[in-house]
Each structure stands twice: as C-alpha cells, then as structure tokens.
Amino acid sequence: MIDFSESDGVGELVLRAEPCNEIGTAMVAALEGFLDGLDVDRIHTLILRSSVRGGFCAGADLRELQAGLASRPAAEHEPALRAFLDRIHAVMDRLDMLPVTTVGVIHGVCFGGGFELALTCDVLIAEKSARFCFPELRLGIIPGFGGIPRLRREVGDAVIRDLLLSGRSISGKRAQALGLCSQVVGRGEGLEAARALASQSGKFDDYARRACKKFIKKLPAEELAQEKELFIELALRPPLLAALTKFVESTDLRPYLP
C-alpha cells in the first residue's frame, strides 16, 4: 500500500496501491500507521510520491464507498460517512502540519482526494504528465477531504470556482502558472528535482525552518469543518449513490477520467 525509506535526513513516502492509489479505509489505515511511527526529529524533509504508473492518486475509493452505502440502511449512512471523514481529515491535517518540509511529486492523475492529498504538501513538483482535477460535482458532492480550504491557501477564488464548477482537469504547466506547483519537470524527473530541493532545505537551521513553516502555513480549521458538513449533507442525497452505481458498473478502463 505504502513504503517509507529514510536517508540523510530525507524521508520518502511512496504510494504503491494499484490501480491508482485510491483512498479508502486501507489507505487511510496505512497513512495513520505511517504518521504514528514517523520520527520527525530524524528527518528535515519528507517527499511524497507514487510508484504507480497511472499517476499520483485517482482520489477516493469509489467502489468501496458505493459498497458501503449500498450495504447499509439509510439510517447508518451519516455516522459511517462521518466516521470515515473524521479519520481522513485527521490524516490530512497531520500531514499538512508536519514540522518538516514536505514535497509532493506529481505525475499523471491527481484527481479528487488525490488532489486534496497533494495540497497538504508544502511544495509541489509536477512532471509534464500531471493532470489536476476536482470532478466531485459529477457525483453530486464536493471535495470532502479538505481540498477547498487548502486550495484557497494557494490560489484565488476565481480559480477555485473554475476548477470546481467546470470539473475540467489542468496540466502541470497550467498549475504552475496558477501558483499551485513550484516546478514542472520532464517525465521521470520529479524525484530528482524533489531530492535536490530536500538537499537545499537540509542546509538550514532546523529550528528556524520549523518556525518558518509554522508561521507561513496555517490550518484553515473552521473552513475545513464547514466543508465536511456540506459534504455529508450532499452525500446523503440520492444522486451520489446513483452516480457511484453508474461508476461501479462502467466498463471504461479509467472511468475516473473526465
């Protein structure tokens, strides 16, 4: 599901769940275990990347979500959704606020919950193959893992409205122009660029680097809570289950693509 390695103060967290690192209960548990065991005093930089050919992360595990809703009576939908959202929000918040420099390396698909995961990183490096998208409105919901408040830290509201209300994907080059990514590099060159950035970050005084991150990156807690409530409200409506059923029954090899 995930791998972690550490060398010379740099940690590398690798997502490796086929087909494209979908975020369900297993991925959440793996990330919780990783965070529980992470010694932030041993590293100054954490690189987050994917070893899956298709991309960084296709988003939430929609098949698991559909099965969970379909197998439960309607009265149990809200507590089940809330319990999962509480767990994933806790994971995202912990990644967001780690007292080390976090660098996301993005290639291929970075959609929905995967985009939300990427937005927890301090710096994003996109390979030319990267595509970013929030397709949630197609399912009758909004991003629910904290994506809107975190995106608002990075870009203006006009960009957020365009991404959400159009559901279109954007390239790494466009993401860089909007201020989402710091670099766009060639295919397969993202890890090298991230390691170079980590090497530079490691030259700084540890206390000063941590203090700097704490000052320049705040957790938008109130808006995160509001987003969670709106997601649950929308997810309890019939359009979500209908859209999920259509997704599960699709014969498209990559039905998450717009």
Number of helices: 11
CATH topology: 2-enoyl-CoA Hydratase, Chain A, domain 1
Encode the helix/strand succession as letters. Answer: EEHEEHHEEHEEHHEHEHHHH
CATH second-level architecture: Alpha-Beta Complex
Q: Kindly state the mean pLDDT as a whole number?
A: 95
Instruction: State the low-pLDDT regions, or none.
Output: none
Write the layout of secondary structure elements.
Blueprint: E1 2-7, E2 10-15, H1 25-37, E3 45-50, E4 55-57, H2 62-70, H3 77-96, E5 101-106, E6 109-111, H4 113-118, E7 123-127, E8 131-133, H5 147-154, H6 157-166, E9 170-171, H7 172-178, E10 183-185, H8 190-201, H9 206-216, H10 221-235, H11 238-249
Parallel strand pairs: 2-3, 3-5, 4-6, 5-7, 6-8, 7-10
Antiparallel strand pairs: 1-2, 8-9
Helix pairs in contact: 1-3, 2-11, 3-10
Overview of this protein structure:
The protein is α/β, with parallel strands linked by helices and 258 residues long. It is 48% helix and 17% strand. It has eleven helices and ten strands. The strands form two sheets. Strands 1-2-3-5-7-10 form a six-stranded mixed beta sheet, with helices on both faces. Strand 2 (10-15), helix 1 (25-37) and strand 3 (45-50) form a beta-alpha-beta unit. The longest helix has 20 residues, at 77-96. The chain is globular, with a radius of gyration of 18 Å.
